[in-house]
C-alpha cells in the first residue's frame, strides 16, 4: 500500500522530555525528520532537544510550529494539556500514544476512561484536529539504546481519518525495522492502549522489551 | 522457560463444530493430542470430530472426560453454557477463547462485559475450575487450510493460575509455528479479546489473516 512522503514534515513531541518522547525524537531525527521537543518550559524543551539533535521549546510553541504533533505525556496530565492547546492544534495531525494504566502490587492494569480511550478523549477535546493513535508499544529503552540499529516492531495506527493515519504510518516506517500498520478506528483504540499492560507483564516474566509484529501483512 | 509435557492430556473443545473449534481440533489431532469435540447433541459432536480425526459427543460428556477444556462457543451462548457445565468443569483447566465483539456498518468493536472480559465471566461462573484465556487471535481459515503447514503466530495465554497457564502454553506450542506466551492475569484479558476487532480491521484492509507475534521473547 502506498504511503505518502512525509520527509518534509515537522514533528513536535509533547512531553518529549520523558523516555518515550525522547526515544521517538532520537529515532526520527536519525531518520532525517525535523523534530521539536515540547515541555512545560521552553528551557527544558530546548535542553531535551539538544540531547537528541532536535530543536525544542514550550509545548504550545512547538505544537503551533509542527505539522504532526505526538502526544507522549503521562496519562495524569493528558486531558489538561490537550484542552490548553486546542487552538494550537487546530488542523494538525495529532498522534496520541498515551496508555492509561494503573499499577498495584499485582502489576499493571488498564484504567477505565470515560471517553473509551485516551485517543477518544483527545478526539473529544480537539474536534478541529485530525486525531490518530500510535506508538503505544514502542519500548523506550530500545529506542534510546545506541546499540539497537533496527527496531523489530510494528506500530498499530488507529484513526477515523485515513489520510492522517497514512501519514503516521509513513512516519513510523521511517524508523529502521518499524512498520506502521493501520489497525482500525479510534473506537478500537482502548484495547491497543491497554495491551501495554500485557506487554509489561510479558517483559517482567521473560526479562524482555516486548513488542508486537502483525503476521501475514 | 520449561513447559510441562502435555502430550498425554485429553482436550475437549466446546463449540467444536464452529470454524475456530474445528480448526484447533484439527491442529491438535495432527500434533498427536487426544481431542474430543463437543456440541449440543452427541451426534453433531461425533460428526464434527470424525471430520478432523477427533472423537466427539455432547458438551457435558466431553467436558467431563477431558483434562483441558477449550471454550470456543459464540459469545451469545457463553454464560449459559458455562453455567450449565459447572459441575463437569470442577478441577479442570478451562481455556476461554471467546471474543465478545459487536458488528455494525463501521465494522467490529469490543462489547462491554460486566465482569470485564469473557475470561473473567468464565472465572466468575466456574469458581472451582482453573480458568485461563488463550487462542483469541488464531485465524480459523489458516487453521483449516491443509496447505498451511506452520502457523506464524503467538498465542497470548492469560491466567491467575500460573501452572494452568503453563499447560495451555505447552498445548499451543505443540502446533508447529505456534508459541504460547504468558501475557498476564485474567484482569488483563479484556484487551486481548478486544484486539480481535483490530485484527479483523487489519484483515479487511490488507486482505490478510493477521496474527500477532511478540518480539524480543
TrEMBL record, chains A, B:
Q: What UniProt keywords apply to this chain's record, in alphabetical order?
A: Oxidoreductase
* A Gene Ontology term for the protein's cellular component: plasma membrane
> Pyrroline-5-carboxylate reductase catalytic N-terminal domain: from which residue to which, for each copy?
10-100
Q: Which Pfam families match?
A: F420_oxidored (PF03807)
Q: Care to name a GO molecular-function term for this sequence?
A: oxidoreductase activity, acting on NAD(P)H
Name its GO BP terms in alphabetical order. copper ion import; NADPH regeneration
Which organism's genome codes for this protein? Longispora fulva
Question: Which protein, by its recorded name, is this?
Answer: NADPH-dependent F420 reductase
Classify the source by domain of life. Answer: Bacteria
Amino acid at each position: 500500500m502506498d504511503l505518502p512522503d512525509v520527509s518534509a514534515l515537522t514533528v513536535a513531541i509533547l512531553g518529549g522530555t520523558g523516555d518515550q518522547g525522547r526515544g521517538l525524537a532520537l529515532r526520527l531525527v536519525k531518520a532525517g525528520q525535523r523534530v521539536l521537543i515540547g515541555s512545560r518550559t521552553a528551557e527544558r524543551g530546548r535542553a531535551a532537544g539538544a540531547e537528541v539533535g532536535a530543536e525544542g521549546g514550550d509545548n504550545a510553541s512547538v505544537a503551533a510550529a509542527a505539522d504532526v504533533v505526538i502526544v507522549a505525556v503521562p496519562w495524569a496530565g493528558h486531558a489538561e494539556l490537550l484542552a490548553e492547546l486546542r487552538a494550537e492544534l487546530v488542523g494538525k495531525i495529532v498522534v496520541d500514544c498515551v496508555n492509561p494504566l494503573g499499577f498495584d502490587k499485582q502489576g499493571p492494569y488498564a484504567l477505565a476512561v470515560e471517553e473509551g480511550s485516551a485517543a477518544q478523549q483527545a478526539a473529544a477535546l480537539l474536534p478541529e484536529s485530525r486525531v490518530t493513535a500510535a506508538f503505544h508499544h514502542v519500548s523506550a529503552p530500545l529506542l534510546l539504546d545506541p546499540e539497537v540499529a533496527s527496531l523489530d516492531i510494528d506500530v498499530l495506527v488507529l484513526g477515523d481519518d485515513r489520510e492522517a493515519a497514512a501519514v503516521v504510518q509513513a512516519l513510523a516506517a521511517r524508523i529502521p525495522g518499524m512498520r506502521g500498520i493501520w489497525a482500525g478506528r479510534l473506537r478500537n483504540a482502548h484495547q491497543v492502549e491497554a495491551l501495554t499492560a500485557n506487554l509489561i507483564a510479558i517483559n517482567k516474566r521473560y526479562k524482555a522489551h516486548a513488542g508486537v509484529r502483525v503476521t501475514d501483512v
